Amino acid sequence: MKKLIITIFFLLVSISFVYANEHEYIVEMKQGSIPREGESLGHDLYCVDTDEAVKLVFSGKVRDICKNEDLSLYEYYSNKYYPNQTYIQTMNILPLIDATPKGKGVRVGVIDSGCYNGHADFEGANISEGYNYVAGNTDVTDTSGHGTSVMGVMAAQDNSIGVLGIAPEAEYVPLCVMYNGKGTTEHLIKALYGAADDFECDIINISLGVSTDVSILKKAVQYVTDKGIIVVAAVGNYNPEALNYPASYDNVISVNSVDNSLNLTNYAKTHGVTELSAVGTVYTTDNSGGYRSISGTSFSAPIITGMLADTLSYAEDVDVNSVIKAATLDILDSGKDFAGYGVLLGDEVLNFIQNDDKIFISPIYKNGDVYNIKLYSAQEHNADVAVSEFSNRVFKKVVFLNPSYTDGVAYMTNNSDGEVNIAAVSSIKELLPQSNIRNTEN
Questions:
Q1: Looking at 15-29, 142-156, 211-225, which range is the least confident one?
Q2: CATH number of 82-314
Q3: pTM score, whole prediction
């Protein structure tokens, strides 16, 4: 045993010299033995310098020995370029990713320019064969790179080589409607019906569109949403007051763009036909097998789609319309405006779906001496207030007087002088009238 310890010790010393870094040692002494110099760590353990370690090893009093190495904190961005994905931090998305099945069991149709499935960051991703509605075959080769970049925001795998997708466990169906520079409303309409009938998608992401309100397109969107499929679409870039479709249809979750300071970008729309906003600059996959930073509402939309895929994988029967109103940060005027209901926050979404037995209140809108709020619920609930019935899980309007706040819970007195205890979706500071207020008319 003594010979073994001596051998191990000299091996450790030789390694120390190789790395030109002198380390002190931790020795485990035989019971009853104490080194002449060193710091006791208890349990017969002592921290000693190299000279003392040598003497102790040759004295035969050492049971075991190891280098006293510097500790390394195990902070680890699982993807090489994750620090470039600032939108994940800005929108607090990581808690939602970590706490949910990451989209597992949710099928997402990506109506775009196809996808380069051979990208290393898609290895292990559940990307189905899909269909090319321009060429009329299953070749969904991405000839522009747009679809691959959109896909990467959602589907990039949690590995050590690239970026982190928001819903890496979801199933993705590339539905190509732009191929070799060609693509028309016809192909978009075919893809919508295909997503519903052939591929039975749960969510459809559309980061493109047309500038004309086409009734046949509107009918296709209606067909899809009547089947319970969620449609998320980018509102388009520049020409701020111009409407684009299908994003401008009422039954579509339309997405505008903000920067990392939560200001509308210079290419954002200002026509007000918007449901939500998300960061518009992403670092994502491209169709060369590499990565790129790219901006546009095209890339705001898949951020929302990925977050909703995570949400549905956690609570498949959750009412998405309630989520996008209860879990947003209002960044402009009160109520629905150019930014829609505001920027969707991942931690607020998680709070909402993890507390589906509670009633959530929106931030308060103060109108003179009257406080207007909205109530949201992940389930159908009754509330002990002046008007108590939910409509489609959203409490449209209720007026309280004389609100008071205690320990982060809003207590309000209604017109019948009854006290109501309502759980809040945000911290109490954010519930003050000066912050995340929404107009109850919207």
A1: 15-29
A2: 3.40.50.200
A3: 0.71
